[in-house]
Amino acid sequence: MISVKIENITKKFDQITAIHGLSLNIDKGEIIGLIGPDGAGKTTLLRLMIGLLKPNSGSIHIEGVDSVKNPQHVKDKIGYMPQHFSLYGDLSVSENMKFFADIYGVPKKIFDKRKKELLEFSGLVPFEGRLARNLSGGMQKKLALACNLFHTPEILLLDEPTTGVDPVSRRELWNLLFQLNKQEVTLIITTPYMDEAQRCHRVGLMYEGKILSFQSPQSLIQGMKDEIIELVTDDKQIKKLLGNLPDLKTVYPYGGALHLTFEQGKGGEEKTKEFLEKHSLSARSIKIIPPSFEDVFLNLINKMNSDTVTQ
Predict the structure, then answer these.
(1) Spacing of C-alpha 134 from chain mean position
(2) Which of 140, 201, 275, 291 is the right S-S partner for 224, CB 3.0 to 4.6 Å?
(3) Residue 29 falls in which region: left (phi positive, over 0), alpha (psi -120 to 50) or beta
(4) Does the reported pTM lie above 0.70?
């Protein structure tokens, strides 16, 4: 069953087109990751889905309802957690929950039961009376998530929910998201972290308002046709010189190494070794490695830019 159906939407801000004719189908109960550089259109896409923005053209259906024409009919089906969720620092955990429950129109007769469930779910029971401003970053994210769940949404949109929190809090928040997903909640998550994107059922790679690819992480990696050479060197000038290496498609830093991409069958490893020897350049190691998720994304961006130049 399709939970979200997006057809050919375009969104412009003055002369800037933030979303270009984008189409997307999301099935009920999926965890969808949206990744891409700043300005790719990820947040704009979420705001279009929630109805905070209206597209210039195209349609969005949430659980079969046109959210552009009937925004009030879908608001109870969706929870939205923006990147900078506005908790009230001078209110306690409990008071913040009451405030957002009132916004969502949660009846008083079920508020106490729902609050107890969400405090236990988020692990915030010991902090019920603590002011929100005195919570850690990770706890604030959990409280923001709990506040968005009072109306039991069928679809939850989260804009970089783990940005700015420590690794332990990131893991705990993802455990909460997996628990929600087991209850058939559809999750649509933007993230700057490639390891988080790989936890999703499908990933949309966004760039300049377009979806470059929308597949499972495994399919994306398996579909990578280029060969990746990992080059570890202490030579600071080597990247600039590698621009003259025959058949080299791209080179970019990756951790403490350089990743070089060649077409399969072009003998990239041997050509790299020969090039370094010819130019008296040293390397600690040169080897073929399996592509990472980041390699896949950078390769798609490079291909898109190359296609644009040749058009």
Answers:
(1) 28
(2) 291
(3) left
(4) yes
